[in-house]
Design brief:
2 copies of one chain form a homodimer. The first copy, chain A, is built from 9 helices and 10 strands. Chain A has 300 residues and is of the alpha+beta class. In chain A, helix 1 runs parallel beside helix 5 and helix 3 packs antiparallel against helix 5. Chain A starts with a helix and ends in a 13-residue tail after the last helix.
């Protein structure tokens, strides 16, 4: 069955990512938490805390099925009854403030055994200190994964990420963005192609992210750098708790709380009305937290 | 005008609370942030950070007016056009993990120069370690303020607080509760009485909270106590960002972000799937984070 094929491929992607992250970390190991969902299916939540490189990293796989609740039917605007959903979702909070936070998600949703079906996903980078060359490299790498499937995807999905990973109350983006997409393949055509796209993104993850880790994980940093990291992490928590649709949907649909909230930072600080010193590196980052930056064609 | 009278009384309550908190703190001083609202009115946000006793305390006053947006009209289910709103809102995060976090709010809302008008408010206590005798004292003190106005208020508003200050995704209350009420006096009768109730609650605040501070602020504590404090604070952040209606309403209606989010803890930690040791003080607190505890008649 297609749904089983997708779930099996996603599970393999989780494994591949874990192996690569553990290798990069050198010290930490991901614990394995198998869980079952009342109503059908379950997942494998894998979390590494207090590693050599990663302070908190969560890489979740789930494949769940059951009856759609009325709330979910409303959200999805469907009359369908049964559902199947599978996905891989990860958030990584590194120790070193010069290594960016990253999030990636690939997901497949099916209603009434495929009467309706679609893929979604995305990847976005949240540097504590924005290195423009690295942001450009990140967007270039992501684009090269998408271009294989449709040359129009990158620009479309990049704009979607700019709009999605945005904190209106701060008037700032979460980071330097990336791509976000939802309900692709829903027209019925190209579902296999969308599956390949999601698989390609998941499989490319280590090659996209780990070079940014290797490059920066041994850089020296100050207490001021860590302080700024804890402030940026609080914005990450604000986004995830107040805006992120996946988090909201998960909590409201009675999902497994600890798996959903593994995305929250290990530690965060809130300081009243903080703003970075004029001319500082922190201010430079702050000023780059905006939509519509053309990272591919930025002169740096 | 009634609205001006209410605002003036609320402003005095802010001043009284500030004087008393600074005295108790002994070291810290509240900064004064006057702000104006585009569209009408403004506020005075007062924040004390890194004091002797209080790590972060915010006591806000605001009195704003203008045109109701369509969103707000929907939320309030009104056809009205103009509004006036004034309130005092405070959240205090003490340094010592044996001093509880507290929140209090009193507010007045008026549509079309009093065509519709109501009061709301509440006070609730969030101990890091629940001391049952102190929780009973807190509820007794709060009840004695309310009983003067209506003997049925306490039980009604206590249940409202249990339901409101609740984290469904954790299946736990924010703390030991207190009282919460909204839209009282809206039937048109007793608006003056509701004003007296809110004023009485605001004026009683120092007498309700500060004894709990004095009693515990010099207690010695361990790193483990601070760790548990940082975990409890993360639940406070989860509630405020994901559920608190005042926070949501403020952010969505384009309120002053830094004044709204002064409620967030100075620092918080998220640890995957943490649960306290069986038999520990932390577990004792965890087990008491539930609705419908009759704190007034608890044998401790």
């Amino acid at each position: 069955m297609f749904s089983e094929e997708v779930a099996a491929a996603f599970k393999k992607i989780q494994d591949k990512i874990i192996v690569n992250l553990e290798k990069e970390d050198g010290v930490g190991e991901f614990i394995v938490d198998n869980w079952a969902r009342q109503g059908g299916g379950g997942g494998i939540t894998r979390v590494l805390e207090n590693g050599g490189v990663f302070e908190k990293a969560g890489v979740n796989f789930s494949a769940v099925h059951g009856e759609l609740s009325n709330e979910v039917r409303n959200v999805l605007q469907t009359e369908g009854k049964g559902f199947f959903a599978t996905g891989v979702s990860l958030v990584i909070h590194p120790k070193n403030p010069f290594v960016p936070i990253i999030h990636m998600n690939i997901r497949y949703f099916e209603i009434d055994n495929g009467a309706q079906a679609w893929f979604g996903g995305g990847i976005d980078l949240t540097p504590i200190y924005i290195n423009e060359a690295e942001a450009t490299q990140f967007h270039t790498d992501v684009r090269s994964v998408l271009d294989v499937f449709d040359a129009s995807y990158y620009l479309k999905f990049k704009k979607w990420a700019d709009d999605y990973f945005f904190l209106p109350h701060r008037n700032e983006t979460r980071g330097v963005g990336g791509v976000f997409f939802d309900r692709i393949g829903i027209e019925g055509k190209d579902l296999a192609n969308c599956f390949s796209l999601c698989s390609a993104l998941g499989n490319a993850f280590p090659d996209i992210y780990l070079p940014l880790v290797s490059l920066n994980k041994n850089r020296s940093f100050t207490r001021e750098n860590l302080f700024w990291q804890s402030l940026r992490r609080s914005r990450y928590a604000e986004f995830n708790l107040a805006y992120d649709r996946g988090t909201k949907f998960g909590l409201e649909s009675n999902g497994r709380t600890e798996s959903i909230l593994m995305s929250l930072p290990p530690m965060a600080k809130w300081v009243y009305n903080y703003s970075p010193e004029p001319g500082s590196e922190e201010e430079k980052t702050q000023l780059l937290l905006r939509k519509d930056i053309d990272w591919l064609n930025r002169n740096v």
